[in-house]
Amino acid sequence: MTASRKTVAVIGAGPVGLEAALYAARLGHDVQVYERGDVGGSVRLWGHVTLFSPWHLNRSKLGEEVLRLAGVSLAADDHFPRGQEYVEQYLEPLADSPQLRGRVHPHTRVVQIGRDGIGKSDALGGGRERHAFRLLLEGPDGERIETADVVLDCSGTYGNAPWLGNGNVPALGERAASDRIAYVLRDLTGSDRRRYEGKRVLLVGSGFSAATAIDGLLSLRDTEVVWVTREESHEPYTLIDDDPLPERARLSAFANGLAKGEDSRVTFHAGSTVDRFEPAADGLHATLRTPTGPVDVEVDEVLAHVGYVPDSSIYRELQVHECYATGGPMKLAATLLAGSSADCLAQTSAGPDVLRNPEPDFYILGAKSYGRNSHFLIRLGLDQIREVFTLIEASPELDLYAA
Prior knowledge:
Order of helices and strands: EHEHHHEEEEEEHEHEHEEEEEHEH
Distance between the termini: 18 Å
Number of helices: 9
CATH architecture of the largest domain: 3-Layer(bba) Sandwich
Number of strands: 16
CATH topology of the largest domain: FAD/NAD(P)-binding domain
CATH superfamily of the largest domain: FAD/NAD(P)-binding domain
Shape: globular
Helix content: 10-25%
Strand content: 15-25%
């Protein structure tokens, strides 16, 4: 289908990475996907959580077509899957589809990306595209080098959390207390129940991971929560009129009620940060900086839901223009920073041009493209895939997702 077959390297076998690889394969490109863990590895970390959005917002028409032809049954469009369902019913079958079978390489980490024969400071005026990408990979059989014409970084941000201390600098003692601090969503009502039930838990954060966590914690017997948010508001969640996502609406109202003191098991500290952790007899002694002065609390465990940040180390030898505020690619970051809607569903595609950066044929897609902005949705990643291939193919009308 494509006039110029290219070698495309996709980093990450998550939702956007696999969809991007499928799109590239359908166009006739030689695509290879490198995943440092298992297929859908980041999604598996929150596999017990139900997505806010239904199936039809989290899979493409192309993916549905491929799986139906392969005899895979698809869940109803309006069903809200758990993360584990998403992996088992969609991502794994995609990776094993005839179009991608043998092209997805799990447990293969991309250590570094560069250009053949040149470094970051070379070819400033153009011509870098004449030098193939070189990818240093580390896999089950050791290290190897692969080359590519195009690289799509879809590696995401989940699990790459900033520190929870003031200014995202580690709180004193935070690094030493790492065995009691979780930076990803725990399965509080399932496999992690015994660790948190009947305990006093320090929860830091004001996003939906924090709301999900506190919902789980309060379903446990005799569990108390000390909840700390950097924002000063006692209504940390914006309620959206006639919210089309019922679970988001429920969690927002529930968490706002807790912040206002509706449950005695929750002690809420707005406008506060964690200054210090010190070992205690059976847990940790935490010192909080609050608007009324220092507060000392004794806790058993800590949940640090303070967001996630992109890791740019793998492409430090490429000419990537990053936003100084979010860490995402500059053009897209500027567009997102100019937006004001609190509803992620209100976002629309910003067009293919914002996906460009000074490094030709290198694109950052998916959650990583949003940097520290947490409003990314998988359906926006599907838009990005369509748009980036109009750049790769130089075909403005290209759309494999069209009905």
